[in-house]
Amino acid sequence: LISIGEMKIYVGMSDPNFRDRYFQHLVLGWMKFVAPLTPSKLEDVPRLKCVQDATGPFERIPEPIWFLLGITSEIARQAQGQLSGSVFPPFSKAWPTIWIWMRHIYRAHQDRADRLRQTMDAAQKDQLAGRYAVFTSILRSFTEHANQPVILKILSDYPEIFGMMADMWIEEAKDEIMVHGFQAGVFTAAVVPSGPSEQRFVAQIILACGGAEEAVNLACQRIEHNTKEAKEDYNAHIVDLHFFTASMSNAKCPIAPAMLASSRVARTLMCAWAHATTKLFLAPVKIRDACLAICMSSISVLVERSPRAYEMLRDVLHHNFIPLCLHSIPLVRSGCGEPEKIIGEAHGVLLGILPPATVHREILSIMQRSMTSPMLKDLPKDQHDVLTKPYHNLWHTIQHRRNAYKEHRQDRSRCVLLCGNAK
What is the DSSP letter of 149? Predict the structure, then answer.
């Protein structure tokens, strides 16, 4: 294996401003310097002298190979799905050996992270997170270029790719000290357009978790852990929230039924919404507005499509749905967002969750507590009416049913069907 200095000289022989040509140059370097010494089996890699000689932070990871892999991943990340089709045939030839090294390095990386878990300092944590980003960049590039026939074939021939992606996503959710942050959330963002990649990735998560319910719990856990982090990753937060909306809106998504039936999803979304309205949420206004909109959209979809609509409605109202609407409107109005969108979503939720089959006095009671809020009185009349009209309609519906029931008791010849809880 050539030295790290020689590898840097080779990498510098092409201009990175010409992205496709530069990417091909890196792949050619891999085929020239790394592929010939790579064994055909993963378990034989530790026997290589270059692996045994690697020590310190690069223990079991030859630095020249890691450098080349890192540069390649950075170009793939910058491309954002825009690499031309001409770069993929050479890449497909290099992929078998790239995959062997990725799995070896990932295993060595995880071993080092586990050893340092209880004692690592900030510098070591940043180093581990930076190394981990190489894996996420390469794997995300697969999902971003999944429309390329060559990439589709690689994904078909190497199902373990989705296994590694799922493992990263799950481990991030379980890791309470968040060594790697929440970088694997980008996999859900890249594969959300409902296609085969999305189905395979989500199905692999469910398989690795042992069931869709546990996968949903981990999706909620990602949100909960991130909001508790001292340095919250707001971009990852938005991505993980969007996963709920995209999954619940897609009837073909294998995790959708479990999400729509989960009370924890309702609580997590409401807590994320509440968090976004506090001073602790330090993201730029644009991200805050996006977070508010995603939470509202997700709650709307959840209440509309859940087979347990009544329980979801009750949970949402118990977690201050209407007060949060009132708090969010001036926040969005003061920023760069569109308050009409928040109002429209709120109106849709309030109308959609009050059909006769779910009308119940308990719901009226929960809503009533929000109707006395001073914030409600300060709204413009059109926005005030949007939030109060469903409540008044519900009140009149229940009053009408109460009167109908009284008439029924007085006139035994009549038959009244009551959809609700009238006494």
Answer: H
